Amino acid sequence: MLPREKVVEPPSVEFDPSLGLDATVDRSDGGTKRPDCGGRRALRGKTYYPPSALRAGLEGRVRVKFVVGKDGDIESPTIADGAGALLNRAALRAVRRLECTPGREQSRPVEAERTKTVVFALPEKMDGS
What is its main location (predicted)? Predict the structure, then answer.
């Protein structure tokens, strides 16, 4: 016979939707806050799908690694996982156009590494075929 196990419920956590999914809390004790470059919607608004990629039917996901500088500028974007030269260039262009707030440590701006995934998906066919 197995011993009885006690089921413990996890503590409840309040969710503040105004913070968004990429937000982190800046602790009053001078803790760490990662840089904010907006969510998927911000990246999607900066992404340009090359017409030649559309015509060729190219789709894919491109992971771009970059550094957010102390001033919020995007530095050293590189392809971590690509989907071909054409989409890789478009993903780098999109990430370079992001507007970021720098990370903070002990209430001071710091450089921080981030990774974003740019998704290129062909639009649905309009004629239903």
Answer: membrane
